[in-house]
UniProtKB/TrEMBL annotation:
<dbReference type="GO" id="GO:0005524">
    <property type="term" value="F:ATP binding"/>
</dbReference>
<dbReference type="GO" id="GO:0048010">
    <property type="term" value="P:vascular endothelial growth factor receptor signaling pathway"/>
</dbReference>
<dbReference type="InterPro" id="IPR042495">
    <property type="entry name" value="PDGFRL"/>
</dbReference>
<dbReference type="InterPro" id="IPR003598">
    <property type="entry name" value="Ig_sub2"/>
</dbReference>
<dbReference type="InterPro" id="IPR013783">
    <property type="entry name" value="Ig-like_fold"/>
</dbReference>
<dbReference type="Pfam" id="PF22854">
    <property type="entry name" value="VEGFR1-3_N_Ig-like"/>
</dbReference>
<feature type="domain" description="Ig-like">
    <location>
        <begin position="218"/>
        <end position="319"/>
    </location>
</feature>
<dbReference type="GO" id="GO:0005886">
    <property type="term" value="C:plasma membrane"/>
</dbReference>
<dbReference type="InterPro" id="IPR055229">
    <property type="entry name" value="VEGFR1-3_5th"/>
</dbReference>
<dbReference type="Pfam" id="PF07679">
    <property type="entry name" value="I-set"/>
</dbReference>
<dbReference type="InterPro" id="IPR036179">
    <property type="entry name" value="Ig-like_dom_sf"/>
</dbReference>
<comment type="subunit">
    <text>Forms a complex composed of PDGFRL, TNK2 and GRB2.</text>
</comment>
<protein>
    <recommendedName>
        <fullName>Platelet-derived growth factor receptor-like protein</fullName>
    </recommendedName>
</protein>
<dbReference type="InterPro" id="IPR009135">
    <property type="entry name" value="VEGFR1_rcpt"/>
</dbReference>
<dbReference type="GO" id="GO:0005021">
    <property type="term" value="F:vascular endothelial growth factor receptor activity"/>
</dbReference>
<dbReference type="InterPro" id="IPR007110">
    <property type="entry name" value="Ig-like_dom"/>
</dbReference>
<dbReference type="InterPro" id="IPR003599">
    <property type="entry name" value="Ig_sub"/>
</dbReference>
Amino acid sequence: MFDILFVMIFGLSGRVLTKDTDTKGRFSSPVLDVTEKQLIIERNQTLQLNCRGRWELQWVLPSGVPKVYHGTQIKETRCGKKNNQYCSRLMLSPALAQHTGSYRCRYRQKHRKQTSVYVYITDSQRPFVKVQSEIPEVVYMKEGEPLVFPCRVTNPDAKVSLVKFPFHPIAPDYRNIIWNSKHGFTIRSPTFFYIGLFSCETIVNGVKYSNRFLTHRPVNKILDVYLNSTGLVHMLQGQMLALNCTVTAEWNARVSISWTYPQKANGSANIIRRISRSRTNMLFYSVLTIPSLSTADRGLYKCHVTSGPSKRETNATVIVYDQPFIRLKHRDGPVVQASAGQKSFRLTPKLKAFPAPEVIWLKDGMVAAEQCSRYHVDRFSLVIRDVAEEDAGIYTILTGIQQYGLFQNLTLTLVVNVKPQTGEKTVSSQQPGTVQRGSRQALHCTSHGVPPPKIQWLWHPCPPKGLSPARLA
Ligand SMILES: *[C@@H]1O[C@H](CO)[C@@H](O)[C@H](O)[C@H]1NC(C)=O
Ligand SMILES: *[C@@H]1O[C@H](CO)[C@@H](O)[C@H](O)[C@H]1NC(C)=O
Ligand SMILES: *[C@@H]1O[C@H](CO)[C@@H](O)[C@H](O)[C@H]1NC(C)=O
Ligand SMILES: *[C@@H]1O[C@H](CO)[C@@H](O)[C@H](O)[C@H]1NC(C)=O
Ligand SMILES: *[C@@H]1O[C@H](CO)[C@@H](O)[C@H](O)[C@H]1NC(C)=O
Ligand SMILES: *[C@@H]1O[C@H](CO)[C@@H](O)[C@H](O)[C@H]1NC(C)=O
């Protein structure tokens, strides 16, 4: 008896279990009581939708239904044979044309699990879901994306045409130009033709209704950003700093230029902006001026450029000297050495100065560049081409900043080393010759070099007769 009861309970629970898995499959998404994809009701009627599911439910209504609307009623109950389901009834009364749209029922915790129905609420006085205001609606075009004129209608059978201002009807071709009563007109690949003023038009009972749109193509392409001084900018205290940031952008682009600079908090700079157009581009200038620099103005100056999501920047580092100066020193002592025959040699003392000084090189008291065509001044160095012995001497660099009465001189001595040379005829003797044994002979050797070469004599005894030099070696 106990055994039978046990089996019965067991069997019962087993059945409940299988039924449960059944419902799991059935209500993976909530279920609406309407099976059609769309409903058509008239204005002032009541819209009633019932939804059932396994978990708590939630409605998502078209944007035309105000969040707080006295006509909206939602009634939630537990339902199902075992009360283990959730039911929700939506009532909208009176339903109005602007409530046309997709009504969705979804699980509160699992938004992706949803079921929807599209409801048209017809109103002969309101064929478009949105009523046109004075100002046309702006529609943004994006590169590579379709363009949509969202003139949804309240009646799926409405005959709507698209017109480009002032009068250019555009017929749907269902390839590029598509009409859909739930979305409006879609242009799959819009061209420049679609920039302008457009309207969706329909005639109901002899009355023309329209929805107007202004298409706008935001342009955000920054082609180039140029600061007229970059890297290090050397300036003197009291001087005027002017930096010109020039931005080249696509036609119609809107660009904003801003600066960051050391004394920004004090607002010590004046900023002037200018826009000009060329045939192909837009040019935007922003000129930052600091009329009288102080040492506090030294540092990084950045020009930031933005156009929509595009960003670019460029910078310059400004160095401010409190006074003009010349610092001139030897690099490797007062005496420098070169070698005769060297392709080139550069005399470069250490020179730091601001502003840039004038430089003159003297050789032995005369202007170097005028003395020899092999001398030339490169920036402030003296370059000697094809170094020769006669280049040795005393060199003086004269530097000066006339404007500020600053002058400095520096003297260097150049020593030109010459490799010792013994010419063919430099050893004097009658060669080959025989002299008498015991006689006195003088041998002369002449050689030249800088520094003076040391001369060393070597004596090689003649090989005995009969032996070839090769064997001796
Ligand atoms: C809807 O109701 C309003 C006000 O109650 C009325 O003026 C209008 O004529 C009605 N419209 C329709 C289509 O019944
Ligand atoms: C800035 O520089 C551009 C050229 O790079 C020039 O055309 C423009 O006139 C300059 N702006 C000012 C205010 O000097
Ligand atoms: C940069 O532009 C400004 C304004 O046009 C000008 O005053 C300044 O001299 C320019 N600087 C250089 C280095 O060209
Ligand atoms: C700029 O501001 C700093 C701190 O706020 C101040 O020390 C400095 O003197 C100001 N410079 C000028 C030129 O007003
Ligand atoms: C300044 O500009 C240079 C060259 O464009 C860049 O390499 C450097 O990182 C910039 N410096 C700063 C601090 O932004
Ligand atoms: C530099 O040399 C020039 C010419 O020899 C001379 O007139 C001048 O006084 C010198 N200046 C200094 C600062 O030594």
